[in-house]
Request: fold
Amino acid sequence: MPMFTWTDEYELGIPAIDKQHRKWLVLLDGLYTAMREGRASAVIGKVIDEVVSYTKEHFSFEEMLMRSHSYPEYTEHKQLHDEFVKQVAEIRERHESGQMLPAVQVANTMKQWLVDHIQTKDRLYVPYIEGARHRR
Reply:
């Protein structure tokens, strides 16, 4: 049973971003499942690497979108992204050093950050993106 389920409340109405957010939740669910099932360390490491890579890819796209639409809170938003990337990298480092990572805690922390970020911070840039769409 998946730990994360996409719901309409996460929709921002920007198809490319919503699609990326859905994929991100799938990756986090894969990480949770791998950790919960105690799969081989290499499998967990691969899933963590996928989460790290996709996190950076998604944030780059989102930041490009914010810059191209002159989002005034871009610097603060990017700072939140940078802090999360650092958190995820620390999880990877802890795993690589052989530390046991509590699956539920790691997954919940990442999910909670993502859900809170989408519902509070990401929603703030939507009017700037949508406004640009209506001006075209």
